[in-house]
Write a structure and sequence with these properties.
Elements lengths: L13 H22 L4 H28 L5 H25 L3 H30 L4
Helix pairs in contact: 1-2, 1-4, 2-3, 3-4
The chain binds fe (ii) ion (FE2) (2 copies).
Length: 134
């Protein structure tokens, strides 16, 4: 049930595309750990590992936006902030209920769907804007 980064998700900025690929790898690690019913500790680590990477990645995109005075910066950053909140809900759910299929379902709903949509619609516009600047 692995998710896959595909060419159509490219935004045209290699640093951002590479980080998106890494995000997909980390999401897969989490989904795999859940489906293999790994222990609470291992799954907790993959959740933290993914969460930290997401924050770093958003920071990188926001640094580009600020550096080049991207007009959509506040809106784009707002989406990132919303995502971090949803991710914290997932973490909280894990802390109260532990591992299980609910984590797979939440990861697909909160992380995978959001990310696919965000990359295609929001990061893609940033990529177009950055293309002639980097
Ligand atoms: Fe992104
Ligand atoms: Fe973004």
């Amino acid at each position: 049930m692995a998710i896959e980064w595909t060419e159509d998700l490219t935004v045209g900025v290699s640093k951002i595309d590479d980080q998106h690929k890494e995000l997909y790898r980390r999401i897969n690690q989490l989904l795999e750990a859940c489906s293999q019913s790994k222990g609470r500790e291992v799954i907790g680590e993959t959740i933290n590992f993914l969460g930290e990477y997401v924050v770093d990645h958003f920071g990188q995109e926001e640094a580009y936006m600020q550096k080049y005075n991207y007009p959509e910066y506040p809106k784009h950053k707002g989406y990132h902030t919303e995502f971090i909140k949803s991710f914290q809900d997932l973490k909280a759910r894990f802390e109260t209920d532990g591992p299980g299929t609910h984590i797979i379902i939440m990861t697909n709903r909160v992380v995978v769907n959001w990310l696919n949509n965000h990359i295609r619609n929001v990061d893609n516009l940033l990529g177009v804007f950055l293309k002639d600047k980097l």
